[in-house]
Amino acid sequence: MRNMHEGMAMMESMPKTGDPDNDYSTMMIMHHQIAIKNSQEEIKSGKSAEMKAMAQTIIDKQQAEIAQFNAFLAGHPAHAPAVPEFNALQMMNMMQMMKAVDLRPLTGDPDFDFAQLMIDHHQAAIENSDALLKFGRDNATKVLAQQIITDQKMEIRMLQDFLLANKKY
Fold first, then answer.
1. Among candidate residues 45, 51, 63, the one with its CA nearest the CA of residue 118
2. pTM greater than 0.85
3. How far apart are CA 101 and CA 6, in angstroms?
4. Is the peptide bond before 81 cis (omega within 30 degrees of 0)?
């Protein structure tokens, strides 16, 4: 939970360029770093081999995506005109994620709690990627956004299956 709140503070203070492709890339780097930290914690503290394997998959995929985002940003200065609607939607998505996370009753079981929190985290990435598909102007970020949507929807289903198989009631 601490990782989520620290990451949110970082994202809120992120300077916005107004270019949806650049702002999406910058925010998703931060967003992925939170997922990596959460996954590293799961590997360290979790008991379930299934959740530890998922955590490692998340780390591997998101480190690769961070490299893609960094490469994009290195060769793509912010373009005008600014699209403030994108930034407002992106921040609203992140605030909804934090509300969902804060409302989740944590169980103290690292595997179960990791699965719960990653569902909310992945859902925010999907919503931000959808926003990029709507407002983005560069094909490179659109392709990456679509891949994130596909991958993270699949991972949400796997996390939900784990929660159903290991429910606490």
1. 51
2. yes
3. 13
4. yes
